[in-house]
Known about the structure:
The chain is α/β, with parallel strands linked by helices. It has five helices and four strands; from the N terminus they run βαβαβαβαα. The chain has helices at 18-27, 40-52, 72-81, 104-121, 128-143, and strands at 2-7, 30-36, 56-61, 87-91. A four-stranded parallel sheet has the order 1-2-3-4, sandwiched between helices. The protein starts with a strand and ends in a 10-residue tail after the last helix. 30% of the residues are buried.
Amino acid sequence: MIIDTHCHLDDDCYDADREEIISSLVLNNVESAFTVGTDASTCKEAMGLIEKYDNLYAIIGMYPENASSYNKQFEEFLISSASHPKVVAIGEIGLDYHNVGFDAEKQKEVYETVLKAQKSAIEVLKNDFYNNIVMASSMRVTKNSVTIRIINK
């Protein structure tokens, strides 16, 4: 069993063939994929995709370079979306200081706020998929040293 644990199926570059790409996952022995949201818009798109496709799951969060768009509404979205059985993580957070022009203080503020949101959502994230299937599958994939990335821009 192979799981693509990080892809961005909401990306505009897939608009023309998104259906074909997602359909091809199973044909290529990829049982499921985790599509990752990096801001409010892409997180909502990821949520739409997981509703449409049985084999897709979502990771929702905000890239550091998108920190300026972070607000309380998005924080509430993260916490409430964590209860969805196909949301497997609140992620895509961090500090990005290698690019010029990013607001380091805002990134720190968002990083700390998302960590708090994760803690608030921890009880909600106790769904069977995350606790049982993903952890067991990840261990098998890691134990067998299988690494695959089939979706590239």
